[in-house]
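Now for one record.
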Amino acid sequence: MPQLNIASIINKTEAEGPGVRMAIWVQGCLKRCPSCCNPEFLPIRARSLLSTVEICALILKNKQTHNIKGITLLGGEPLLQAQGLAEIAQYSQSIGLSVMLFTGYNKTELLESQFAGATKLLHYTDLLIDGEYLAEQNESSRNWVGSSNQAFHYLSNTYDRSIETQALMTTNEWRIAQDGTLLGNGLPFIIKS
């Protein structure tokens, strides 16, 4: 049973993709994009190790409790944990949820020889958004991306280009944790203060 190194999970969000979703951020990234929106998720170090079985159980609970319509995989860099995430994506689709995946790599770089499990992960992904965030190409006309170089790849018929510019009810969310920590997520960041 594979384990995933998880940086953060939000059980119910409307800011991390189309509709009500569960967002899963993985810990660790080899890229060092200037102006990364999640710099604390870059170091490759143990954060919160969860088995794929534990995560799948949480996804099912969130579907039943919050009526989520999909999951969004972000990071860090999800492709570094493609094998485990592929199982998560496959399970999610098997219970009728969509899968959205963000990566800092370009789609052409997502080869099995580079990232074990990449082929299966992409097979069970409905919407892929690829490309590094480039501050000099900042953009605010499309949903969920920060720079114009980032591309939407529709890998199934679940979504179409209309979602890129549809009006969103929620672009950012704020939560206060039990310890008083302020948590924010959405466009284009997740913060803790």
